[in-house]
Every structure is written in structure tokens, then in C-alpha cells.
Amino acid sequence: MNEDALKRTEKLRIAIESEGAGAFVIINEEGSNWESLYYMSGFRGTAGALIVFKDSAELMLDSRYAQQGREQSPLTVTEQRTDLVEEVRERLLKHKVTHILCEAGKTNHSTWEKLAAGVIDCRDGAKYIKELRRTKDAGEIESVRRAAEIGASAFLDTLGHVKPGMTEKEFEALLNYKITLAGGEVGFDMIVASGTRSAMPHGRAGDKKMCVGEWVTVDFGARWNGYFCDITRNFSIGEPDARAAEIHELLLKTHKTAADKIREGTSGTDVHNAALKVLEEASVGQYFTHGLGHGFGLEIHEAPYLSSRRDDILKAGDVVTVEPGVYIEGWGGLRLEDDYLVTKTGAQRLTDKLYQCFYRV
């Protein structure tokens, strides 16, 4: 990460020059934007600020994190003594900076006003960070792969403990425990939906008991080195409903059709529509109610998107999900999700430690 941080700050300086600015400021106030601060500096903590000037960069941290920052980042660490935003402002004024770039969507309004205070012109530079973070380098791809390996191992281990009467919440808790035990970090809020509840694409785990003959849809993630994996699998307790098994086979066909279209230069909308066409030909297209996929990395939703609503053009280095689903209210639903690296010639499945099957326990 150390070498990466130096390269990334150099790239950010190009944005500073192009905008005629004097600095780029990233502020993380108790977890508000740890992802960008970590990405740009190598430091991972709950608070701190990074100031990238035209010819230098400073990582400002309080006494809780100063030592950690020096160990994790190659950048100069300045120890914060008073208010974080005030000290950032003082450093900017000392460097005679009057125009800065920030991530507007991740900088709260009061912070923005404090930084400006009639002297410093703040402008939104979020697009530059998003573009840098979108293309994953070899280290980031390996982190996603490792997260996927941990997630797969934990999921299979958890399946071995499933029995009738186990609640959705108990399954969620056990899977999260297995992820942690395997050396990963728990990812996003898990989706565990059994029986008719599986018709809810984002059905959080509840107190419902899982019964023989029901199927369960599980959308889960693990982290490694800060990076997510994002996986959805379905399993049944005993033999699954015949219709559910048929729909799973259809989703497998849909998934593979879409994944085969992924490569650099392809439209995300075209990939989404390829999946939708397979479902429409099977007369269930109306039950596919969301976009086919999305980019991810340090955050679970990043550019690009495979969707009819955003026509993003895929680039080599993008990491995206493919997750077709069918959701029928009153009956249930299923989804099949894996993660892919976009290359110039196709897509590589990063979640390849799990079969794309309907698991039975």
C-alpha cells in the first residue's frame, strides 16, 4: 500500500493542476470517509485528513492514530493538536492556498463552511477520486479474491450446521462468525430470506425459522484488506420446490449469458439487457426488478453499473457483480450473484470457490 499511496497522490496532482487548485483535501470525521483516506494514504482509521498540495502531501492525525499513520503510510504525518478542520484550514492558509478540491458528497456542510469561511474557495472534485478508485490494480484485485475465498469457505462451513428450525438471524450470526474466524471482516448487512420472504430482494434476516422444503436466499460479503466480495447463493433444506429449481437453472443461464458479454468497451446497459432478454423469453422478465450489477471495492456500490438506467462503458480493471434475480410476491424469489474482473477480452470470475449451484442441506 505504501508505494500505491505515493503513485495515487501523484495522479491526484494532475487533477489539482487541471482545476487550477492549490490542494485536494480529504477529511474523515469519525468514519465519514475512511475509504478515500485509506485509498489515497494507506492509513485506515476512524478520523484524519489528507492534504495533497502541488508539491507535497500531509496526513493529519490525532494522538490516537499518529503512530499507526507513520507505520501504514509513506506520507508525512502531522499530529493534530486542536480541531481537525481548523488545523487543515491553517495548513492551507500557511501554504497560501485559496482554491481547494474536496469530495462534496462526503464532506458535511458544516465542514465545508469551516474550510471556506470567506477565504478559501471549495469545489467538488469527487469525480477524480471516483475515477482513480474505479480501476482496480493487482493488489486490489487480489484483496477481492481473498475476500471471496474467505466468504466461500465461511458459507460452506455454515451450511454444514444448518438444520430445520434454525432462524434466519441465527444463520446470519453464524456466517458472520465463520467469516471472522477465517480471518476476514464482516461485510455489509447480510440478506437472509427464506420461503415466501425470499421475494424481497433486500430481505434482512428475521426471526423466521427455516423449514424443510423451503429454500433460502443469502446475499453476503466479506472484507479483506478493506475490500469487499459480494456473493448470493440459494440453498434448500431437503429437496427444493420444483419451480424454484427450474428458476435457478434459468438464472444460471441468464448469469452466464450476461457474464459472457462482459469485456472492455461493452455498454453496461447492453449487458443488463442481455440478461433481461433471457428472462423475458422465459416469461419472467417482469419479475426481474433491479439492475444486473454494480462495481464495488472499498465500498459495496461503486461505478460502473450494469443497468438500464445508467449506460456506463466498461473498462479493463473494473470489478463488477452479475446478479440476475426473479422475485414473485406470495411465492418467493432467487438470485445468483458472482464477482467479475473486466479485462480487454472478457471477464474473470473472482468468486470461483463456490459452485453456481442450488445447494442442498
Descriptive notes:
The protein is α+β, with helices and mostly antiparallel strands and 361 residues long. The protein contains 10 helices and 20 strands. Strands 4-3-2-1-5-6 form a 6-stranded mixed β-sheet, with helices on both faces. The chain has a 4-stranded mixed β-sheet with strand order 8-9-12-20, with helices on one face. It has a 3-stranded antiparallel β-sheet with strand order 7-10-11. Helix 3 links the parallel strand 3 and strand 4. The chain is elongated.
Mean pLDDT over all positions = 95
Give the spatial strand order of the biggest sheet: 4-3-2-1-5-6
Euclidean distance between termini CA atoms: 41 Å
Number of DSSP helical runs:
10
Secondary-structure element pattern, one letter each: HEHEEHEHEHEHHHEEEEEEHHEEEEEEEE
Residues in β-strands, percent: 15-25%
Largest sheet: 6 strands, mixed
What is the share of helical residues?
25-40%
C-alpha geometry: elongated
User: Which secondary-structure class do the elements indicate?
Assistant: alpha+beta
Cα-atom radius of gyration: 23 Å
Task: Say how many strands there are.
Answer: 20
Poorly predicted regions are none
Protein traits:
361 residues, alpha+beta, 6-stranded mixed sheet, 4-stranded mixed sheet, 36% helix, 23% strand, elongated
Task: Describe the structure concisely for a colleague.
The chain has 361 residues and is an alpha+beta fold. It has helices at 2-18, 34-41, 66-72, 84-94, 109-116, 126-134, 138-159, 168-181, 242-261, 268-281, and strands at 23-28, 48-53, 57-61, 76-79, 99-102, 121-124, 185-186, 191-194, 215-220, 222-224, 227-228, 231-236, 293-295, 302-306, 319-322, 325-328, 332-335, 338-342, 347-349, 359-360. Helix content is 36%, strand content 23%.
